[in-house]
Design a protein that fits this description.
This protein is mainly β and about 100 residues long. The protein contains no helices and nine strands.
Length: about 100
């Protein structure tokens, strides 16, 4: 199966915002992954956050977490996933 790709989406967003993310193919889900820390050997802040999406076709509305305790402020990778295959990540700053 070909890897999906994110063709457009915002670079920054705020808590509880609904963002539009477009892909080159239909996808099943989106996830956020907090970027790793470069200053520590153990990173307890790294997390994978499944997010809700809606819409038909290749353009989806993705609902970001509304609580900063779920998604700490900072840089995240957003992935589109189709049949378990992730896209190349796109960077998204949440805060």
């Amino acid at each position: 199966m070909a890897r999906p790709s994110i063709t457009s989406g915002p670079r920054t967003a705020t808590y509880g915002e609904q963002i539009t993310v477009s892909t080159n193919t239909l996808v099943d889900e989106f996830v956020l992954v907090r970027m790793a820390s470069a200053t520590h050997s153990v990173n307890t802040d790294q997390r994978r956050i499944p997010v809700q999406s809606s819409g038909a076709g290749n353009s989806k509305i993705v609902s970001l977490p509304s609580e900063p305790g779920i998604a700490l402020p900072g840089e995240y990778f957003i992935f589109a996933i189709r049949d378990g295959v992730p896209s190349v990540a796109r960077m998204l700053r949440i805060g």
